[in-house]
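In response to the reviewer comment on reproducibility (Comment 2.3), we provide here a single inverse folding case reported in full, input and output, so that an independent group could reproduce the run without further information from us. The structure tokens appear first.
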């Protein structure tokens, strides 16, 4: 095979490789496409967005839940192919990734009266206390969603099961100021007297550990795969591969031209 034939074959090879890689890129970008959001209806309230809607990749999506009378919003369950995540923020804002389908379910719970009290008549000024179950023991009052006219009248008591011990309470809520009350999100007091601002919703959960085991430590949460400049990391990898191939083709052409001289 002559030098010109070899040059032609190699150039054709690089051209075909470049075209096939470009096709992969474009198909990958198209596959990423729009994000799909499916909002599921739930008993006890409504949302300002419903049904199925598509959004461009990278959209900042916001949704608000409104509880019906005698109900309280508890959390969102956001599900994708990679799993489900609970969010307590309301409104909820998330950044959408193209090619992903999000199923969003708001959770509402029927309000309960705390022991020895009635459900407030003015819910806008009520303190909402969501008592969550804890593995290894029980709480009093039992898990549920409570509406209080005076949060300081409610006491939470944790009782460990046999072979378990009470460790602490975990407290979470949308406002990091705890409604103006002193902030201690892992109190060890038992019984614990609830205290947070009215018009706020907070979540209280007892934490139990096996007798003789070390105290639990917070583990770092895993970060989902993100995007760079609105494109997935996989797409950027393919683009980088194309750049490398182009650089190699240019280098080969320069080398062949010099050799021809």
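Designed residues, in position order:
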């Amino acid at each position: 095979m002559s030098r010109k034939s070899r040059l032609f074959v190699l150039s054709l090879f690089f051209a075909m490789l470049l075209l096939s890689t470009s096709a992969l890129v474009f198909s990958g970008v198209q596959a990423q496409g729009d994000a799909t959001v499916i909002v599921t209806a739930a008993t006890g309230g409504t949302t300002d967005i419903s049904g199925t809607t598509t959004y461009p990749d990278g959209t900042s999506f916001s949704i608000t839940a409104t509880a019906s009378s005698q109900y309280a919003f508890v959390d969102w369950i956001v599900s994708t192919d990679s799993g489900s995540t609970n969010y307590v923020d309301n409104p909820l804002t998330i950044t959408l990734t193209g090619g992903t389908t999000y199923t969003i379910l708001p959770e509402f719970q029927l309000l309960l009266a705390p022991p020895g009290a009635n459900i407030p008549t003015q819910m806008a000024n009520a303190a909402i206390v969501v008592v969550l179950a804890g593995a290894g023991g029980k709480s009093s009052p039992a898990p549920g969603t409570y509406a209080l006219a005076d949060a300081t009248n409610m006491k939470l008591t944790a009782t460990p099961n046999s072979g378990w011990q009470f460790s602490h309470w975990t407290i979470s809520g949308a406002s990091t100021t705890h409604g103006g009350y002193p902030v201690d999100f892992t109190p060890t007091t038992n019984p614990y007297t609830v205290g947070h601002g009215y018009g706020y919703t907070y979540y209280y959960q007892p934490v139990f550990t096996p007798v003789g085991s070390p105290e639990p430590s917070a583990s770092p949460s895993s970060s989902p795969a993100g995007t760079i400049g609105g494109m997935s990391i996989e797409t950027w990898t393919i683009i980088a591969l194309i750049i490398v191939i182009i650089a190699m083709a240019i280098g080969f052409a320069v080398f062949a031209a010099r050799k021809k001289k």
